[in-house]
Amino acid sequence: MLKNQFNVLEMLEMAKEIEKRGFELYTQQAQKTGNHDLKKLFNKLASDENDHYNTFDKLEKEYKNKEKTDYSYLEDRKVNSYLRSLVEYEIFPEDENKELEGLSLDEVLSIAIQSEKNTILLYQELIPYNDERTKEVLYKLIEEEKGHFVDLINYKNNN
Hints:
This protein is an all-alpha fold. It has one domain (2-158): Ferritin. Helix content is 80%, strand content 0%. The chain contains seven helices and no strands. Helix 2 (8-32) crosses helix 4 and helix 6 packs antiparallel against helix 7 (132-158). The longest helix is centred in the N-terminal third of the chain and has 31 residues, at 36-66. The termini are far apart. The model has no long low-confidence stretch (mean pLDDT 80).
């Protein structure tokens, strides 16, 4: 299904957008909380999301260098907006941080948990449509996202 809709570079663009929004969410939440343990958790998650973004960015550059296809259309505002919209609808809404204002910690954690779960599901869906190098990266990142998911659930359940 996805292969008929997106090529590998489009998928990488979506993945980068997911990681960027995760980074922003966790960074902002770390700044807002006065709880030392939660701040530490959000900062770790933000750092991981930034690392994931850089991993996808590196993969994207490798593909662009390897293939001589013109991918400049990915820079097109309409295409870029479309890919961002898919991510916004499915994983991390762009104005999510505004929506988090006034929510309880429990509600914020629930949103973060759901976002991690959605990211895991999306990355699992991308696996069959990628080459071995990208699959390897996706498997690794799925494990890391599962760790985020578990860390958030554990924090929520124990505090």
